[in-house]
Design brief:
alpha+beta, FAS1 domain, 2 domains, elongated, FAS1_domain, signal, FAS1_dom_sf, cell adhesion molecule binding
Length: about 300
Amino acid sequence: MPTANKSTLRLNSCLLLASVLAVSARPQDASTMLKNTLTLANFTRLVDDLVKFDLADSVSKAGPKTIFAPSNQAFREMMMHNRPMTNNTEIMPKLLRRSFVVNRRIMPDDITNEMVIDTISGDQLRFNIYNTTMTVNGVIMTKEPLVVNNDVVVYRINSVILSSFMKGQNLMVMLEANKDRFSMLIRCIQDTGLTETLTKDGPFTLFAPTNEAFRSLPTEVLARLMASPEEMKRVLTGHVTKGTYFLGALDSKDSGTDSVLPTLDGGSNKIMISGRTIKVDGAPVITSADNIMADNGVIHAISRVLMPN
């Protein structure tokens, strides 16, 4: 081979090697790094959905972040119970973005009971710490992160975060948003002067009787309560528990929550759990409905008015 050709070949080989080295040395973009981190931690379904709904870039912006990552099993259960939602291009991106908190690495020691933080979806997350269980918006989370590095902290959660809230969405606002079920309760709250308490104070857990619950009262009892704001107020304050208690914690076998929760009337609510059945003072909680979250607590629909002993 002529000397000139050998020189050209060596030059081309050097240029090719330099190009390969340059590509291999190029730092991965933030999106790729995040997807790799989540994949290595076995959050493959979350990664698939971030790609599917074109969210990988928007949730991977540079800087510290904390992720509350649904497990693969959480996505499988969502597929079984609500397959249409998993393909909804409006709902699912919003649900997924609730799992991402940017500009902040949240370590276990940073988390306090009733702490509220913002997410990139514009929604807020509330943390609650029970004896052996920790929840974020009512979803059970690991107490220790599965991933910790300079930029990312990842906790596993056992469900996609379906319920959330924004600033200003207090208990009364959320009752109004669901007034097709709670119109009678709203009227009673207004008539008894409890509106301000449920608007400004808290956090509270409101065990909210549905319209059907009020109608199921004996006619004479309902008439007496409606005619006596003071008696109705005593009844209603027995439905309000101090602190935030979510169904995800109440029906957890190892939740460690007390079976008796203090109420505003100075009494208490007895929580009884049998399998997936949750009762408050004997009244079933309507577990088919999600936690209705508010910025000062949570609402659980119940099918019976709790009458004081």
